[in-house]
Specification:
four-stranded antiparallel beta sheet, 11 helices, 14 strands, 25% strand, Enolase-like, domain 1, five-stranded antiparallel beta sheet
């Protein structure tokens, strides 16, 4: 028989997750129906985190932001603190599905679900986010770039849950852009998405960071180092060359591998151009 638990503290939630039933974590609930439609084992026992106070907090820290796991995607899109400290994340959040989904989907749920097509994950890689993880045995912090290990697979050990996200402030003078392409409908899963961050020139170098979604079994991070005199076309060429070996899309009803590779390169060019131009303003 299915069980639905609603703990009132994080400790209680961790104890439930460490028990023999091994229930799944319930955050915004938007991912639960997707398990069945994608042929994944559907959890029957759930631990609902909505009764735990403070998990939907969003706060400014000395280094940037701390996001509770129940902060909604809609809040990431609209909160002025996010727009100020991490505009790239705000831009990516604004492109997630549609408002009804963004109103309930959470950043912790997105991270835990670990679908590489989710729009917000690439920006976490680019912005050097760290994922706070807790369990009955203790807590630890995992770099976002090391957290995603496969499609719907993460560095979480049995009994662990996402307790928050530590997000450094976006580097001053940087330019941020998000681009994505779908083939079936605007709110459908993307064929390719790119979160781009162009850093301001430093000494004789400048860096371009990309977080690619829907192009492989995990969100993909790419970093390109360029001379300060590089043009936007130089940046696009370098980004495409660095990313191409990592683009390994899944063939499905949304398109062939060749089609998705082409869209990924278009998204790389679009996001890079927009981010590069934002630095120049």
């Amino acid at each position: 028989m299915a069980a639905f638990y609603r703990p009132s503290s994080l400790d209680e939630a961790c104890q439930l997750l460490s028990g023999p039933a091994r229930p799944a974590v319930y955050a915004g609930g938007t991912a639960i129906p997707l398990f069945a439609t994608q042929g994944l084992p559907t959890p029957t026992d759930l631990v609902d985190l909505s009764g735990v106070a403070g998990l939907d907090d969003l706060s400014v820290t000395a280094d940037g932001l701390r996001l509770g796991p129940l902060v909604t995607i809609r809040r990431l899109e609209r909160d002025p603190q996010v727009a100020d400290a991490a505009p790239l994340l705000a831009k990516a959040a604004a492109e997630v599905a549609h408002p009804r989904i963004r109103n309930v989907a959470t950043i912790g749920g997105s991270i835990g679900y670990a679908d590489p097509r989710l729009d917000t994950l690439g920006s976490l890689l680019v912005l050097e986010a760290r994922i706070d993880v807790v369990s009955a045995a203790g807590s630890r912090s995992v770099a976002a770039r090391e957290f995603f290990v496969g499609r719907h697979a993460t560095a979480l050990a049995p009994g662990e849950l996402v307790a928050g996200v530590e997000l450094p402030r976006q580097p001053p003078g940087s330019g941020a852009a998000f681009a994505k392409y779908t083939s079936l409908a605007e709110a459908d899963w993307p064929c390719a998405s790119v979160a781009a961050l162009a850093l301001a020139p430093a000494e004789d170098r400048r860096e371009l960071r990309l977080g690619l979604g829907a192009v492989a079994d995990v969100p993909v991070f790419v970093s390109v180092q360029l001379p300060t005199g590089a043009t936007v076309d130089d940046a696009i060429d370098a980004a495409e060359q660095a990313a191409q070996p990592l683009i390994r899309p899944t063939v499905d009803v949304r398109g062939s591998a060749s089609y998705k590779r082409k869209l990924a390169l278009v998204a790389i060019a679009d996001a890079t151009r927009q981010a590069w131009q934002e630095v120049a303003r």
